[in-house]
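Format is chain and fold; as here:
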Amino acid sequence: MPALPVAFEVGTFIVLGLILLFDLLLVVKRPHEPSMKEAGLWVAFYVGLALVFAALMFVFTGPEYGGQFVAGWITEYSLSIDNLFVFIIIMARFSVPRKYQQEVLMVGIIIALVLRGIFIALGAAVIENFSWIFFIFGAFLLYTAYKQATDSGEDEEQAGDNKLIAKLRSVLPMSDHYDGNKIRTVVDGKKVFTPMLIVFVTIGLTDLLFAVDSIPAIFGLTQSAFIVFTANIFALMGLRQLYFLLGGLMTRLIYLKHALSVILAFIGIKLILHAMHVNELPFINGGEHIEWAPEIPTFVSLAVIVATIVVAVIASLIRSRVTGTAPEKAGTESTDEPAVDSGLAQAADEAEVEGPRR
């Protein structure tokens, strides 16, 4: 396969960096809850941008690298959509005002990009030197697929209740109410932290768990660190707008977690087969490559991923229409400065987190 031109890689990161910076400044300057039209236009823009980039990949490097990017982007995008359910719970649990949820999501996206960048760099270095790591990645993805398929969602419903959050609450002076989007405020003449700090910490910890799940999955589709990182960037860009656009539709995608379980299991098997094909472990086949182990082509992976997602979405929408159980709106309905955890039960009911969970 041809090597990616350095100018193309550098230019890509410059353009994407500028777009993300503009998006961040837009959120900071004008915090608001986007309309359906605004959110839809932004999501369409980011999806279109990813498709344009995919076309450029096909032009510059041919169908193999181009197919790897598309497969990786769709996989990461699907995992990111599934992760939105956890964000819904976090927003509900901490009663984050909807006009400031964009900023929380944007901070979460930035944290995710940094963490995934670190994981990608480490993963690429390990893969370069230790081919047996694919056995571990494959086994981990099979375990993750099993947990994804059997998870009742109780872990997600406890988002924000871990020991670190409890420790922060007990150590740091904390107000009971938000002060706009500020992390610190003044109460009775004393500077204290607002609940927004806890929200940011919770989002960051959640992103860390997501990175642990998603990075091995995409390395099962490509070993190019550039493709892995760009696929993650394109999957995360527009995620905050998608949060508002999908709304109640997210909870209608009840079979998405099952689809992701199938995809993760498929990639896990692909990784193990690849590890067998390039085997160097002395206690397996005498340290020789296992030639009969097939290498699953990129176009087969792409077809399996797309078909699984399409079937899951169609089945979910049909089930939702038949049962008529879809909620009217996902998320929290809060005032500008609600007390933390106020109306939690009602907010959680409105979120109706019954759909795909991690």
